[in-house]
Amino acid sequence: MRVKFTISCTRCLFSVFSCHGMDILTVEGIGSKATGYHPVQERLAQFNGTQCGYCSPGMVMSMYSLLEANNGSVTMEDVEKALAENICRCTGYRPILDAFKSFAVDAPPEDRLARRAMGITCASDIEDLPRASCVGCERECSAKGCSDETIELQFMYQDRRWFRVRTVDEIFDILREEDVSPGMYMLVAGNTGHGVYRRAADLRVFIDVRHVEELRNYWIGSSVIVGANVTLSELIEILREAARADRRFTYCGELARHVEEVAHPAVRHVGTISGNLTLKHRHPEFPSDLFVLFESIGVEMTIASPSGAMEKLRFGYGFAGVVLCHSRLL
Fold first, then answer.
1. HEC profile for the chain?
2. Which of 41, 129, 165, 311 is least surrounded by Cβ atoms within 10 Å, i.e. has the fewest?
3. pTM
């Protein structure tokens, strides 16, 4: 069963075609002068958390996403971690953190008194907060069912195609039918690597693999098996679950803490294990913390072929020499 969840992401990196099947909400959508401001927006202003205003929309959406994803129950530490993706050059962060930490369940008593003195009431659940109405849209905004579709888009005058697939077999079928060489196609998930290394201009085929369930599953038993297309944020939670489930995997708690230091929340929410490792494979100079972690604990990776054959390889210095092409997928 599919579960609806909320994340924040970096819009300048996330592909617009990957947004198919998603409900997209911007800062204008949660509140405005015309429709009324959201409590997160009001709180930032009441605590003098905005000066030039350039960073404020991003700050607001990061906090809104955090509250929405956690049903309004967040701690002050959660707030600090969520804002790691946002930069402010004016305020020094203090009033911004003060404003958003006032939503936390563990906010100090003096903060609660200050809020009451200012006439601010802190809702305990995001569902209790008033929602701005949708303006200028006559139909119901819902992505229900869209994620189950297989999609093909043809870009005229550029000879480029975009596919969204649901199975590993579909990936191999497209690569075979399109007859593309390794340098002419790209498997797309979070697209965060584009912020580090610009992709080649002659790419012709893009395959969105975010909805391939085979690559997003995980299993905790005698070992921990994680799909290559699991996001880094999901990996953190899986590692914590493994550490709680079996004392043999207590070290996974330390791994989770280390993965939390990779990039920032907006990248970890959509960036995947395979994307990080593929970047390391193509650019050996890329400082991948994930690669170092996997090599240190002897992680074994499985590479699939069109025939259905599976090859297992252990991480090591030979990783850069592993052939990952149209006939082999991590």
1. CCCCCCCCCCCCCCCHHHHCCCCCCCHHHHCECCCECCHHHHHHHHCCCCCCCCCHHHHHHHHHHHHHHCCCCCCHHHHHHHHHHCCCCCCCCHHHHHHHHCCCCCCCHHHHHHHHHCCCCCCCCHHHCCCCCCCCCCCCCCCCCHHHCCEEEEECCCCEEEEECCCHHHHHHHHHHHCCCHHHEEEECCCHHHHCCCCCCCCCEEEECCCCHHHCCEEECCCEEECCCCEHHHHHHHHHHHHHHCHHHCHHHHHHHHHCCCCCHHHHCCCEHHHHHHHHHHCCCCCCHHHHHHHHHCCEEEEECCCCCEEEEECCHHHHHCCCCCCCEC
2. 311
3. 0.76
Torsion of CA 7, 12, 15, 18, to 10 degrees: 20
With the CA atoms of 194, 171, 163 and 10 taken in that order, what torsion angle do they form, in degrees rounded to the nearest 10?
-30
Distance CA 52, CA 87 (A): 12
Residue located via tokens 């297992």: 312
Lowest mean pLDDT among 34-43, 86-95, 119-128, 269-278: 119-128
Write the pLDDT tens digit of every residue in 294-315.
Answer: 999 999 999 888 887 888 888 7
Q: Which residue has the higher pLDDT, 87 or 113?
A: 87
* Side-chain-side CA neighbours of residue 56 (13 Å): 19
- Residue entry with tokens 């050059």: 89
Quickly tell me which residue has 């995001």 as its tokens: 126
pLDDT band at 180 (very low <50, low <70, confident <90, very high): confident
List the one residue out of 47, 51, 167, 48 whose CA is nearest residue 115.
Answer: 47
Query: Is the confidence at residue 42, as pLDDT, over 90?
Result: yes
Task: Return d(Cα 179, Cα 301) in angstroms, integer.
Answer: 26
